[in-house]
Amino acid sequence: MTDERIDAGDGVVLRPFRIGDERSLVAHANDAEVARFLRDRFPHPYTDEDARAWVEFNRELRPTSNFAIAVGGEVIGGAGFVFGDDVHRFSAEVGYWLGRAHWGRGIATRSLRALTAYGFERHGMVRLFAGVFEGNEASARVLEKCGYTKEGVARRAAFKGGRFLDVWQFACVREDALRR
User: Fold this and answer.
1) To the nearest 5 percent, what fractions of the chain are helix, strand and coil?
2) Top-level CATH class of 6-179?
3) Contacts of range 162-166, beta carbons closer than 8 Å, 24 or more positions apart
4) Which end of the chain is more exposed for a tag (fewer CB within 10 A), N or C?
5) Is the pTM of the predicted complex or chain greater than 0.70?
6) Region label for 65, one of left (φ > 0), alpha (ψ between -120 and 50) or beta (otherwise)
7) pLDDT value of position 177
C-alpha cells in the first residue's frame, strides 16, 4: 500500500484507506442522509462488512484512486476518481461524501479542491467531471467553489429512491484550473 497523502489544509488530509478505518467508516457512512445523494453502490445501511470490503478493495488499487477524508486521524468521508480509458484516458469522474456531523464546515470544498489539483498535477488529467442528482444544491455549491462549471442537465438520467432524477453535469478543465 502506498502512503500517499494529500494535504487539503486546516487539518484535513486525504490518504489511502487502511485497516483500522472500518469503525469510523461505519460511524459516518451508515446514515440515510449521507447515502441519499450517492449512487446505489454506496450501501445503506452501511455495515461492518461493507467497510471491511471497501478497505480491502482499496488496499489493492494502483494507483490510489479512492481516498479517506481524515481529520485528526479519523475517517469522516471519502473522495476519489474513476479514471477514463481509451479516448477518455485524460478525463476522470470525481466523487466525494462526508459524514453529516461534518457538513457545512468547508471540509468537502477543501477536499475536492485538493483532489482536483492532485488529478491535474499527479495524473495528468485534462478534464475532471461530476454528476450531481437534482436537489443536491450543497454538492453543486462545492463543485462551483472548486472551479467546476455546470455544463448541462441530463434529464431523467438516474433512478434513485424509486424515481427518475435529472443529473446536473459539472466539469473543470486543466486550463481553467490553472487560471484560478
Assistant:
1) 35, 35, 30
2) alpha beta
3) 165/133, 165/134, 165/135, 166/133, 166/134
4) C
5) yes
6) alpha
7) 78
Backbone φ, ψ for residue 149 (5° rounding): -110, 140
Cis peptide before 43 (omega within 30 of 0): no
pLDDT along the chain (180 residues), means of 10: 81 97 98 96 97 95 94 96 97 98 97 97 96 97 97 98 97 84
Three-class DSSP category at 46: coil
Residue 123 exposed, middle or buried by CB count within 10 Å (0-12, 13-18, 19+): middle
Residues 148-180 pLDDT 10s = 999 999 999 999 999 999 999 999 999 887 776
Q: How many CB atoms lie within 10 A of CB 30?
A: 18
Domain ranges of the chain: 6-179
- CA 167 – CA 153 distance, rounded (Å): 6
Pull the grid cell for residue 83: 479514471
21: nearest Cα among 54, 57, 62, 44: 54
Give the Cβ contact number of residue 167 at 10 Å: 19
Beta bridge partners of 96: 79
At 176 the pLDDT is 81
What distance in Å separates the CA atoms of residue 114 and residue 91, rounded to the nearest whole number?
A: 17
